[in-house]
Amino acid sequence: MFSPHGPTVRELAVQALSSVERGYDLLAPKFDLTPFRTPDAVLDAVAEALAARGPFDRGLDLCCGTGAGADVLRTVCRESVTGVDFSAGMLAVGRNQVPADAPPRVDWVRGDARALPFGAAFDLVVSFGAFGHFVPGELPGLFAQVHSVLRPGGRFAFPIGAPPGPASPWYWALFGFDAAMRVRNALWRPPFVMYYRTFRFADVRRELTCAGFTVEHQALEGLGRRPDGSPRCRLIVATRESGVPRPRPA
């Protein structure tokens, strides 16, 4: 799963015992050589789906890491692309990978997704592989922040994979990872928040609606379907409504 030039077991252990920010600063130089980077097949499928809905003017890659999502935005945005992340190390890698004179302009901003340093300036916000770093109780605030930086009619798009069933080895691998992470966070400080099984489709749709979005989804057909015919991955597209957010159900 890891490239021979990727992080060593020792490096991964040091990262896992650090804070999220410090851990990603340490991992940044080798991050793109790990399975934690969003696969190109997913990025390409999302880019194709967004191209059919665009073009857009200004795009934001939320929790951009080394910039895989920014590369998607560069294919569908005409004016500018911004990547925001709280890891200075990940931003530095992303900045070094994009030619400074390649259009559209790409800006790299250090910031917290829970307190975005922007106004309503963007037509499109994307995010890839970052939501496991937020516990479910943080989703209302996170989605409210995204809503606040989108222009009316702007879209928030991200892929969400179908959860594996109990018969799949991946189900137990992800279950074991999340369990180990909970034990680690109960015994060690600072916490490292990274869970794979807490970002559920029904919960996400409800919270996006409460945050003031109209939510739709489409199958990413290029990623195939499961034996029961359901898509392996969907693209969630949440459009900012012009009104105020709706009250959350009790």
From TrEMBL:
InterPro entries: Methyltransf_25, SAM-dependent_MTases_sf. GO terms for biological process: methylation. CDD domains: AdoMet_MTases. Coiled coil: none annotated. Keywords: Methyltransferase, Transferase. Residues 60-154 form the Methyltransferase domain. GO terms for molecular function: methyltransferase activity. This is Methyltransferase domain-containing protein.
